Every structure is written in structure tokens, then in C-alpha cells.
Amino acid sequence: MSDRLADIGWEEFRGLSPEAKSGYLSAPGLGGMPYHTLFAQQFDRLILERLAALANRIRFISKSREGALHLKGLLSHKRAMLYFSQPSSRTFLSHLAACQILGLTTGSVRDAATSSEFKGESKEDSIRTFSSYFDMIIMRSPEQGLAEKMAWELSNSSRPVPIINAGSGKDQHPTQALLDIYTLMRSFETKGGIDGRTVVFCGDLMRGRTVRSLSYLLTRFEGVRQVFVAPQELQVPADVVMVLAKKGVEFEVTDSLRDAVPGADAVYMTRIQDEWDESKGASAKIDTSRFKFGAKELALLKADAVIMHPLPRRDEIATCCDRDPRAMYWRQMRNGMWIRAALIAATFGLEREIAECGY
User: Fold this and answer.
1) Does residue 283 carry a pLDDT above 70?
2) Range scoring the smallest mean pLDDT among 195-199, 228-232, 342-346
3) Catalytic: 331?
4) Alpha carbons 355 and 57: distance in angstroms, whole number
């Protein structure tokens, strides 16, 4: 199975918008499901709903020993490489667990110093090497655009294998956006769904790639209002605002969390992304005291709203919120394992087989 990236040159592909690039990232036989997963823009509403249904089916099958063993046999003949050159625990372990659910054998590199990159090998050569041994590469990198470039390189090589982008620079984190949308779907599945909801984003919105990706996926639903709460220095970037304006999405940019919380159906908190500081300690100079969620904000929140966070957190959500039934961030983490298992299964063309199995 191959995708359409073999039909276009790199420079031409690189110059396209993410929406236009998405048309090159699926493969025959997948019914529109991605072969390479690189951008949130690849997922329309139908694909999101299909992946959510597949994740729910995998969850159900895995509840019995027999079902779990059946799932483990589906991809026991495949191997996945987890190449994480940027620090991660949740994203790494979530993808690892997703692979284990489906029976994939896995290998990993979590520090470039333990690979031949330490000897001067380029990341591109390292990834081409991995493709010789593995049938899928799941990669996380601080280098923006690396997953995209390697997807094109591998699709134009003698051994094309799919790439899943598990975080690329400050730009995209599509599988995090999938688990966020899946969490919202499950949170509101008996309450009318996501359509017409208000989602409040708070924290470091300038550098938070999870915010960028989720904001885009929310445009796939009808009438979702987005509110961005942040200090001026960390407010949502102009390109995100331009996308929302172009799509006719209702949004608000503000610096008052207290004013935004009462109208929220979901509050998505983020930490300060100071690992991207251009000079050490720059983020510490920003006053973030008004952008934290605690007992007072909890008292203002609707009874059926949810609180989310991609984690790790610092002090932007007080621990007093953890036992409140509206706190979804721990369930959000577990949801990531299931939706990533669904994405991996769909990438290998197992959507129908899982949907129709007898467990």
C-alpha cells in the first residue's frame, strides 16, 4: 500500500497549504483514512467519527481476555519504531501502549545520544535506517517539518512505510488533537455532542502546538465558539485567528479567565512552554498569576462542563480540582491510548475487520 506522495516533488509539496497537502497523505483502500498522519487538517468530521467509533470498538473488545488476545494477533506480524528525539513520557507511553494492544513489536530511540546521530549521522539518514527494519515510524521531534519531510522521503524510497507525527516543533501535534476531540466526544455523547459548545483555551497559546491542532479540529463541528485566554505575550498566534475568521468561526481573544469560565462547556488549560524561550528565563518575566484554574474558577464552572489539560501540568490547575467529576485530564490521557490504537489500526487497513469481529 502506498500514498500519493510519490506523485509530487518535494519542493512542490512543501509549498502547499496543510489542507492541500492532506490530499496526498491517504492511500488506496483506506477509505480516506491517513497513511501518513502529519497534520490536524487531515481529519474531517467523518474521519473523526470513524476513528472514535473504532476506538470505542477496540475498548469494548479488549474488556475480555479472549478479545484482548484477538486484538494482539491483528498486527503481531508488524513492527513499529518509536523515534522520540524530544523528551516525552505520556505521548511515548501512550503510543507504546497502543502498539501493544494491537500486538506490534516495538523498538525505540528516546535520546539521539544513544543513536548514530551521536556520531554525526543526520536525522534523515537515521529515519531511513529505521524504515529498513520497521513497518511504521512514530516520531516526535523539536524540528519543525521533519515528519513531513521524512514522509515524503520514505514514500519516494524503495521501502515506503507510514509515519505518525507525535509532535513536530511548535507547530503540529495531530494525535494529541485526536485524543482531545475524542475526549470531548465521549464527554458530551449523551448531552447533544460537540456542536454549539464553547471551548475556552487558557495559558501559553502562542507556543502550544496542542492548542493549534485542537482549534483546527473544532472547526469541523457546527457552531463551536472558541475563547482564547492568555497574557498578551502568549496569546493565540495570528495564523490561527486567520483560519477561524476565514471559516466563519465565532471566537474571542481575552485576558480574563474568570469572565470566560461561566460560559465554558470545556476549559482547556496549558502550561507555559518555556522550553521554547529564545533567552533563558524569558517566560518567568511574564505575569501568569491570573491564568490559573483553582477553587474559585471551579465554583464558576457549569455543572456539566469539563476541564482538560494535555499535561504535564505545573500549577495552572490546582490539585483541589483533581477529584471533581468535571476534571477530565486523567481520562483524557487514557483516551489517548485508545484513539492512537484506532489510528494505527486504521493506517494498516483494519477498520472493517475490527468493526465486524465477533467479540
Assistant:
1) no
2) 228-232
3) no
4) 7
Q: Which domain holds residue 36?
A: 4-173+335-356
> Is residue 182 over pLDDT 90?
yes
* Same structural domain, 253 and 307: yes
Residue from 4, 72, 90, 313 carrying the catalytic annotation: 90
Indicate if 114 belongs to the active site.
no
Q: Which helix (H) or strand (E) holds 295?
A: helix 295-300
Tell me whether residue 90 is one of the annotated catalytic residues. yes
Check whether residue 308 and residue 350 sit in a common domain: no
* Residue 169 and residue 238 share a domain: no
Do residues 327 and 342 share a domain?
A: no
Q: Which CATH number does the domain housing residue 50 bear?
A: 3.40.50.1370
- Among the listed residues 91, 175, 198, 288, the single catalytic one is 91
> Is 173 a catalytic site residue?
yes
pTM over 0.70: yes
Decide if 126 contacts 154 (C-beta within 8 A). Answer: no
Q: Report how many domains make up the chain.
A: 2
**Angle, alpha carbons 233-238-240 (nearest 5°):** 115
| In the predicted structure, residue 241 carries a pLDDT above the cut 90 | yes
198 among known catalytic residues: no
